[in-house]
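Today's session is about reading a structure prediction critically. Students often jump straight to the picture, but the first step is always the sequence itself: look for stretches that repeat, for charged clusters, for runs of hydrophobic residues. Only then move on to the predicted structure, which in these notes is written as discrete structure tokens rather than atom positions. Here is the chain we will use throughout the hour.
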Amino acid sequence: MTLLYFAQEQARKDVEMTALRKQKRELELALRDLQASTAAKQESLHEEIDCLKEEIRKLGRSISREGANLEYLKNVTYKFLICHDPVGKQQMLNAITTILQFSPQEKSSVQAQNKGWWGGGS
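Below is the predicted structure for this chain, in token form.
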């Protein structure tokens, strides 16, 4: 009887061990899948971070340029307002309409309005 009992116990342990080995293989595969997925997500996040950093740099440069353009516009407008030379005023008016990105129609309208004031302009 004890021999039969040990044989049954051994068979039960063999079945349990086989099930545990199978479970171990499945868990190892799941772990590898998770590691691969994590690595892919991490790479994607690094790429996204790099893109966002570049976007921040671009925006920084843009803000810097806007400040410079605004300062330039201020200086040109100031000189335009104090200038008495019709040719100089016309050149500054051209610069102002360019900086502010006037449409061709807006530029024509401004130039038509100002021709009479400074003896015809250019």
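Discussion point for the tutorial: The CA atoms of residues 29 and 113 lie 78 Å apart.
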